[in-house]
Design brief:
Layout (H helix, E strand, L loop, with lengths): L1 E5 L3 H12 L5 E6 L2 H8 L6 E5 L7 H7 L5 E6 L5 H6 L4 E4 L4 H15 L12 E6 L2 E6 L5 E5 L2 E5 L4 E4 L3 H7 L5 E5 L2 E4 L3 E5 L2 E4 L4 E3 L2 H11 L1
Parallel strand pairs: 1-2, 1-3, 3-4, 4-5
Antiparallel strand pairs: 6-7, 8-9, 8-12, 9-10, 11-12, 13-14, 14-15
Length: about 230
């Protein structure tokens, strides 16, 4: 993460620089003695995190933060505990009261990482294809080309427009792999790509390849809510 220091006291600047250097995930791109200098920098550059002192010359850290329209994540650094409430109201990540230890600094940075971490289901939305083992070969399957999947015991049949493959991975594994916003379970044995559905009639789903699949009673309400 690219970060900057806004601190008017050289000793405090040196401590922050040392702590940042000791954490490999942080990249210091600027150090400023007042908020006006930092404001000029932020008009040209984008950063992920600011270590911001509150008592600054010319413009306080709180006033400076309120003036920003596009705020990076912020960790306040100050010698005065009475500003803690201001930090909470401004939605800052953490509040470091000087003098603070390296351990306390690390805890604050860890909070930044947690807040910046995207909440994505493992192995789903970032993955767009999968290799299926066929005999001694592995065949690449693009998820967008899958029309539907049918459970077959501990195996799973994967249907494309012009062919089908027998996957040695069960339906449970495919449910983990595929994006649940696109692939919906309509039956204990069937998982369909909603982009490949032509129509729904009664308790049946008509797919683009001519297949007609039943909608299980257990799955009907949830499927209809999401699809329609």
């Amino acid at each position: 993460m690219n970060c900057i220091i806004i601190e008017d006291q050289p000793p405090a600047q040196r401590i922050l620089k040392k702590y940042i250097q000791d954490i490999g995930s942080l990249n210091l791109v600027g150090t400023f003695g007042d908020a006006i200098q930092a404001m000029d920098f932020l008009q040209k550059e984008t950063v992920d995190l600011m270590f911001l002192d509150i008592n600054l010359p010319k413009l306080s850290g709180i006033s400076f933060l309120k003036s920003l329209s596009n705020k990076p994540q912020v960790i306040f650094t100050t010698a005065f505990s009475e500003y803690a409430l201001d930090g909470y109201e401004l939605d800052v990540v953490d509040y470091l009261l000087k003098p603070f230890s390296f351990e306390r600094f690390v805890k604050a940075v860890a909070k930044v990482k947690r807040e910046a971490q995207p909440t994505v289901k493992p192995e789903t939305q970032s993955k767009k294809e999968h290799f299926i083992k066929i005999g001694y070969e592995h065949v690449r399957i693009a998820f967008e080309n899958i029309i539907y999947l049918a459970a077959d015991g501990d195996y799973c049949e994967v249907f494309l427009e012009d062919k089908k493959y027998l996957s040695s991975e069960p339906m449970k594994k495919w449910l983990e792999l595929l994006d649940e916003a696109i692939f919906h379970r309509i039956h204990k044995s069937y998982l369909v790509n909603i982009h490949r559905v032509n129509k729904i009639s009664g308790n049946q789903v008509y797919l683009v390849n001519g297949s007609i699949l039943p909608i299980g009673r257990t799955y009907r309400e949830d499927f209809m809510d999401k699809f329609l």
